[in-house]
TrEMBL record:
Species this protein is from: Seonamhaeicola marinus
Keywords: ATP-binding, Membrane, Nucleotide-binding, Transmembrane, Transmembrane helix
Protein name: ABC transporter ATP-binding protein
Domain named ABC transmembrane type-1: residues: 22-348
Main localization category: membrane
Residues spanning the membrane: 21-43, 98-119
Recorded GO CC terms: plasma membrane
Localization of this protein: Cell membrane
Phylogenetic classification of the source organism: Bacteria, Pseudomonadati, Bacteroidota, Flavobacteriia, Flavobacteriales
SUPFAM superfamilies: ABC transporter transmembrane region (SSF90123), P-loop containing nucleoside triphosphate hydrolases (SSF52540)
A Gene Ontology molecular function term of the record: ABC-type oligopeptide transporter activity
Gene3D superfamilies linked to this entry: ABC transporter type 1, transmembrane domain, P-loop containing nucleotide triphosphate hydrolases
């Protein structure tokens, strides 16, 4: 229930619709009860002579117009008013009296259904609003969480939480919002009417209510456990599907289709088994509640009938009242069943709510400080000051110190795992250092707003990350206000305009999922153009040419040189031919600087850098 209350917070912005829903449900519950109470005078008219519908006495005189004597006599006033109106309409004619009661019955049912429609109308805005806001909140949280969170989670599981789990809430937990007012009120009003008709009989049936609640709660408890297993398994096969779509080329290339097919089938089989058990238990709730209800009505028929037959209750319970009482008792079953199903669904939806809350309540270690600096104009230098960092247990950077003056190009080289890309992750604050500090113009990056820091940075990675949109839309990520001419100029600087202008729709051409309609070199040049359009003072190039063939590398390298003009650049290089003109080359080994200097100086040292050069046959 705690999970339900947390989800309920999202309904606060829709309180005016909620109030309309509550008011409509109050009237629905009232008219639902009156629709059975009105049966009493109709049955009296059919089976008896002209009688007072409340006192059951034969009407021999014209009833006087009632006088209102205050709230404490409202019940007597109501009886006299109803009798007066009925007699005024019929003039004592039995058939007219019957017509009056039927009109009243139709009116009661009409008002009941109008109230029901209005309640559902208002709830549409509440339910859909809650789901929309919840989806938006989960998506925003996903955007805010650090990269470290996603390295520990399966993508499919996160997708399942943002889609399947929220759908489960919509279908299982949120419908209780509709039932939370209507069904309890219907039960309360009905019980009040039943108590009024026969207190003794109503108190007798109360012994069934705890039994009813106990059995339903036992069913509900097991549903939460089974639902949790279903949702986890759904996340697993969605992860397999996502991995399959991402790695289809490798799967086919290694003839691994059968392996992945078996893996997916195993997961869907477990999902099948878990879901079957869940639905079997869930479907048990409705017949159980209905059977208990008919048992209750049967006991009422037996006990109430004996009261009448024995004459022990004849002073306040006659045939018409008893029939109306049976109708009221059965009227409790529908809201009771609906409410019990709702409570069962709350248990079932609790597992989904927990999984969603787990994402929403995940602490973000990279939050901006309260008084973080919002604006920065890069002016002097970037300094890595005795920084150490580890992803898990072992440090991948150890006491790393480096100063990069504005306008200079610094290249980081070394074998895989030496910590080069980690430096790019740290300066962008995808991760925070464990020791030491990173300073820009003497300001610790932790004291800057992330948006202010990243506004100063342009990033071109080894994998050209593009989106299923047009070339223009992909480039505008760097500068939303750029004109078409600005986009074209950026493409020219990146040596990309030559192929873009030949495309069917130019810059408005859709490039497909991950840009798969383009070659590797073309995608990389679009990444460079995106960075050019952003025009940041600091560029980070993370092995931007390592995945390209020689011809593409040459074209992209020219584009990179254009990009780095008049900018401070940190170049992480695998191919050393691309960084020979750097102002400074830093050689890393196991997270530590082993050499530092210009290309010719490092070659002359005949050390680690020269060995890397020889390995690549550059001399």
């Amino acid at each position: 229930m705690n999970e339900f209350l947390k989800i309920l917070r999202y309904a606060v912005p829709y309180k005016r619709y909620a109030i309309g829903h509550i008011i409509s449900n109050v009237f629905f519950a009232l008219f639902s009860t009156l629709s059975f109470v009105v049966l009493i005078p109709m049955l009296n008219v059919i089976f008896e002579k002209n009688v007072d519908p409340c006192t059951k006495e034969v009407i021999t005189t014209i009833p006087a117009k009632p006088v209102y004597n205050g709230i404490f006599e409202i019940e007597q006033y109501g009886k006299e008013f109803f009798t007066y109106q009925m007699y005024s309409f019929s003039g004592g004619d039995k058939s007219k009296t019957l017509l009056f009661v039927i009109i009243l019955l139709v009116l009661t049912f009409f008002l009941k259904n109008v109230s029901s429609y209005l309640a559902k109308y208002f709830m549409v805005f509440v339910r859909n609003g809650v789901i929309r806001d919840l989806r938006n909140t989960v998506y925003k949280k996903i955007l805010e969480l650090p990269l470290s969170y996603f390295s520990e989670k399966r993508k499919g599981d996160i997708i399942a939480r943002a889609t399947g789990d929220i759908n489960d809430l919509q279908n299982s937990m949120l419908p209780i919002l509709e039932l939370a007012i209507r069904e309890p009120l219907t039960i309360i009003f009905t019980l009040v009417a039943m108590l009024y008709i026969s207190t003794k009989l109503t108190l007798f049936i109360f012994i069934f209510i705890p039994l009813f609640a106990f059995l339903i709660s036992k069913i509900g408890k097991s549903l939460k456990r089974k639902s949790d297993r279903v949702q986890k398994e759904q996340g697993l096969f969605l992860s397999t599907l996502e991995e399959t779509l991402s790695g289809l080329r490798i799967i086919k290339g290694f003839n691994a289709e059968d392996q992945f097919d078996e893996k997916f089938k195993d997961s869907t089989q477990r999902y099948y088994n878990f879901y079957n058990k869940l639905l079997i238990r869930q479907n048990l709730a409705s017949p159980t509640s209905e059977f208990l209800g008919i048992c209750m009505v049967s006991v009422i028929l037996w006990y109430g009938g004996n009261l009448i037959f024995n004459g022990t209750d004849s002073s306040f319970l006659d045939g018409s009242q008893f029939m109306a009482y049976i109708g009221l008792a059965y009227n409790i079953l529908t809201p009771a069943k609906a409410f019990s199903r709702g409570l069962v669904n709350v248990k079932k939806g609790g597992a989904a709510a927990e999984r969603i809350q787990e994402v929403l309540e995940t602490e973000n270690p990279l939050k901006d400080k309260e008084n973080a600096i919002e604006n920065l104009d890069f002016a002097t230098n970037i300094e890595f000051k005795n920084i150490s960092f580890k992803y898990e247990d072992e440090y991948v950077l150890k006491d790393f110190t480096l100063n990069i003056p504005k306008g200079k190009t610094v290249a980081l080289v070394g074998q895989s795992g030496s910590g080069k890309s980690t430096i790019a992750n740290l300066i962008t604050r995808f991760y925070d250092v464990n020791k030491g500090e990173i300073l820009i113009d003497g300001i610790n990056v932790k004291n800057l707003k992330k948006s202010a820091l990243r506004k100063q940075l342009g990033i071109v990675t080894q994998d050209a990350i593009l989106f299923n949109a047009s070339i223009k839309e992909n480039l505008l990520l760097g500068n939303e206000t750029a004109t078409d001419q600005d986009v074209i100029e950026a493409l020219k600087i990146a040596n990309a305009w030559e192929f873009v202008e030949e495309l069917p729709e130019g810059i408005n051409t859709n490039i497909g999922d991950s840009g798969n309609k383009l070659s590797g070199g073309q995608k990389q040049r679009l990444s460079i153009a995106r960075a050019v359009l952003k025009s940041p003072p600091i560029m980070i190039l993370d092995e931007a040419t390592s995945a390209l063939d020689t011809e593409s590398e040459r074209v992209v390298q020219i584009a990179l040189e254009n990009l780095m003009k008049n900018r401070t650049s940190i170049v992480i290089a695998h191919r050393l031919s691309t960084i020979q003109n750097a102002d400074e080359i830093v050689v890393l080994k196991k997270g530590e600087i082993v050499e530092q200097g210009k290309h010719n100086e490092l070659i002359a040292k005949d050390g680690a850098y020269k060995k890397l050069v020889k390995m690549q046959s550059l001399e």
